[in-house]
Design a protein that fits this description.
By secondary structure, the chain is an all-beta fold. The chain is built from two helices and 30 strands. The longest helix has 4 residues. It is globular and about 60 Å long. It starts with a strand and ends in a 22-residue tail after the last strand. The relative contact order is 0.06. The N terminus is likely disordered.
Length: 355
């Protein structure tokens, strides 16, 4: 199989051709596949310009038809000059991270150098977290580990949450760029996320090596200025009024269902579990959003604004655009339409694609 890869690519619907177009730097559009066929689920572009593809199932790259094979390739690096994909790990049979219904981090991530990190299942049935750089694969966890999520920082350090299979002991750890392992917490994290201040935040203790005090705590003694107190009776929870505070206050802010970062670097989350969720700002201020979406299920960053989908106080489905600077809200899909959304995305390039 041979693909012609350039600085950008878009899918198209056509009666002939590969249904994938390559856009050259001069704007010229050509069919992206020169020969062979394969079902590709994702294209990935690394910070250093390297291009990777994830196939829908392992394929034999030596076979022009790209047919599924038990010992085939799932993740490949594509040479932009030739369009030829080269498998980077032929033992990988699936790419996955996390569990359905829980906050999860992307299963494929990059550091600033362009090294690729991926989580999945190997052909021997063990879970893997691996780094690939300059033709070298490095295992970051042992065969006895199972991970729920991980975050790669620009310098190549990796925060990982999981457990040891043999003992069932949970942990949250930091793996340095040189391979050193530091235990951060003797339990798994409800979520891991790197905020715009460069720190990695994680549910349960909200600690990081660069900011050891808790960002959100359950007693007045724990957080320090400008951190926040969520204890019942504290100003944030006691002043929430009719807000569904259970998923936030009773859990000390440790569980979220999703997190998005707006263009100004602010972090907005949906607290978990969704049965009692609320839309909140987590950074740089911790506060409830005064939104008509009282039971949010989806969110998306739209510039400095946040799109929120869910139900209102009358259990009607709606979609709104919330402006955090003014706390004003614009209706995008009225409750009278009763349209329930399952996916929410916004493309800054096309200025469209919310539902």
């Amino acid at each position: 199989m041979k693909m012609l890869v350039s600085s950008d690519a878009v899918a198209r619907t056509a009666a002939a051709g590969s249904n994938l177009e390559a856009v050259a730097p001069n704007g010229q559009i050509t069919d992206a596949v020169a020969s062979g066929t394969a079902d590709i689920s994702h294209f990935l572009s690394a910070p250093n310009g390297d291009v990777y593809v994830v196939f829908a199932s392992p394929v034999d790259l030596s076979n022009a038809t790209g047919m599924f094979t038990a010992n085939g390739c799932l993740l490949a690096q594509v040479d932009p000059a030739t369009g030829v994909p080269a498998c980077i790990d032929n033992t990988l049979v699936s790419i996955n991270c996390g569990f359905p219904g829980q906050y999860t981090t992307p299963p494929i991530q990059f550091d600033s150098s362009g090294a690729i990190y991926y989580s999945g299942m190997a052909s021997n049935g063990t879970m893997v977290l691996r780094k690939y750089s300059a033709g070298v694969i490095t295992n970051l966890i042992t065969n006895e580990a199972s991970i729920s999520q991980f975050v790669v920082t620009p310098n190549g350090s990796v925060f990982v949450s999981g457990s040891t299979t043999a003992t069932g002991v949970s942990w949250t750890r930091l793996i340095s760029a040189t391979g050193g392992v530091t235990n951060l917490m003797a339990s798994s994290s409800a979520f891991l996320a790197q905020f715009s201040d460069g720190n990695v935040y994680f549910g349960d203790s909200f600690e990081s090596p660069t900011d050891p005090s808790k960002w959100i705590g359950n007693s007045t003694a724990e957080p320090v200025a400008p951190h926040f107190d969520t204890v019942f009776g504290g100003s944030l929870c006691s002043s929430a009024g009719t807000m569904p505070v259970g998923a936030f206050c009773s859990l000390s802010g440790a569980e979220i269902e999703s997190a998005v970062q707006t263009s100004d670097g602010n972090e907005y989350v949906l607290t978990g579990p969704l049965s009692d969720s609320a839309a909140m700002e987590y950074y740089p201020t911790v506060r409830f959003l005064s939104t008509a979406v009282v039971s949010p299920t989806l969110e998306a960053a739209v510039g400095n604004d946040v799109a929120l989908a869910g139900t209102n106080s009358s259990d009607q489905n709606l979609l709104t655009l919330y402006n955090p600077a003014t706390d004003m809200e614009t209706s995008l899909i009225s409750p009278s339409n009763q349209i329930e959304l399952y996916h929410l995305h916004y493309s800054a390039q096309q200025k469209q694609g919310l539902p």
